[in-house]
Design goal:
single chain, Ferritin, elongated
């Protein structure tokens, strides 16, 4: 009877950090982000909340499937759910680094590490639950685009990088 609560909890969890990241950095989007030089293929601002809602929902439900298949918080769950938790923490850290701190260097390092952890999560989940791994594919694809976008913004806005002190 309690399984629905676990399903909902795992599915909602990624949205929490995503919402907080947006909430605390939302004022920086019109004030700062809009003024950055961005490539022509940069998605419209309207696309991001829709995309992240779908990606977080799929990712969260997938984490429930893995947790359930491994019998909850067992020793077998340490690596696959540890990778998931680590990539989720880096995912949540990106908006405060990029928008809040306006630190393009740290945001770039964050997303490159996030890519590795997200791919590691997908690979570790594949042997546990194929559907869970497949549910991460759109996320990994979106991260590839977001990484390319972060790199381009980092390269095309050198004045936004901290000056080297001599």
């Amino acid at each position: 009877g309690r399984m629905w609560a676990y399903t909902v909890g795992f599915t909602v969890l990624p949205h929490v950090g995503g919402f907080l990241g947006w909430f605390f950095s939302r004022k920086e989007i019109p004030a700062w982000y809009e003024k950055l030089k961005k490539p022509s293929w940069c998605p419209s601002r309207k696309v991001f909340p829709v995309a992240w809602t779908m990606l977080y929902t799929g990712m969260g439900y997938a984490s429930y499937l893995v947790w359930n298949d491994l019998g909850g918080c067992s020793s077998k769950a340490i690596v696959p759910l540890g990778l998931y938790g680590a990539q989720l923490a880096l995912n949540w850290a990106w908006p405060p680094l990029f928008f809040g701190a306006r630190n393009l260097n740290m945001a770039l390092i964050d997303i490159l590490c996030l890519d590795g952890l997200a791919i590691g999560t997908l690979c570790s989940w594949y042997g546990i639950n194929r559907l869970a791994a497949l549910l991460l594919l759109p996320y990994v694809g979106w991260l590839a685009m977001a990484t390319c976008l972060t790199i381009r913004i980092w390269k095309d806005n050198p004045e936004q990088k901290p000056a080297k002190s001599d």
